[in-house]
Amino acid sequence: MLTDMTATSRKVSFSPTIAIFSLLLILYMPLLVHWFNGWLNKSISIEHEYFSHGLLGLPFAAYLCWNRRDRWRYLPETTRPLQQIFGLSLLILGVFCYLSNLTDLINLSLPIMLTGLCLGFKGSPGLRLQAFPLALLLLATPNEVPYLLAPYTLPLQSFIAGVAGFALTQLGMDVRVDQIYLFVNDRIVEVAPYCAGLKMLFTSFYVGLLLLYWTGQTSRKTIALFYAGIVIISVAANIVRNTFLTFFHGTGQDSAFQWLHDGWGGDVYSTALLGLIVVWLRTLESWVSDAGDIEPEIEPEIEPEPGT
Questions:
Q1: CB neighbours (10 Å) of residue 248?
Q2: How far apart (Å, rounded) are the C-alpha atoms in residues 3 and 176?
Q3: What is the pLDDT of residues 110-144, one digit of tens each?
Q4: Do residues 256 and 248 lie in contact, with contact meaning Cβ atoms separated by under 8 Å?
Q5: Which residue in 39, 156, 204, 276 has the most C-beta neighbors within 10 A?
Q6: Coil, strand, or helix at residue 108?
Q7: Are strands 175-178 and 187-190 parallel, antiparallel or unpaired?
């Protein structure tokens, strides 16, 4: 009887949760449609296009939440006033952000509200349960961080321009490099802040986070090497991309330039880069596995001679 009453109370307490999250889904559905439509059709602003990795992360976050619904359901309701107050404060902050006229605040209101609901309903255990899906949502929420980072990419832009110019010179082309500009056959190619590979670096870090979750990798050394490799792969791949773009533009192959810069050639490049990241993680895992299989040699103990 007691078990039945407990199950009934849990079902009753679960219904308001479903109602609130359903209301949030209705409120934010137009915003989510705007994000996905902008990412797929590249009709969103340049800064917001940096977060197109949400095409992978947001459905996966929703999938994780759905799979954890039973664990969420059987978590006890929080009774700690501090957690309830903090959750309510986040909800109020989210409402103010949603009702504001600033696009970034409207975008950020979604993870803020969901975090407040997790704390308000289930406290810190509920927040820990949904921490990874919330992190995926936050890291895929469009904001102005790329715009703020753009002024600091000048050294990277100059490095990419210099290496691309050197590579084309080795191919026999007459190339002059001036900071972030490459001059080829009276044509100018600029390695702009948004061409310095920052977008793919964002995407690579995000996909790397998904790969680490899928593989269950927890070794700090492996994770550090993995992300260091991501940086190297992203920079190297972007140098190759800018080299081809400069070659196409300098030789008058405008259709090939548009194909790689704005067309589906860029999608091929992105897919190949992410494939290299998967290969890099598999290589690291095989190294770690091989190192773990090597057993240290144990020197045999030397028995003391009689009389010593």
A1: 21
A2: 79
A3: 999 999 988 888 888 889 999 999 999 999 999 98
A4: yes
A5: 204
A6: helix
A7: unpaired
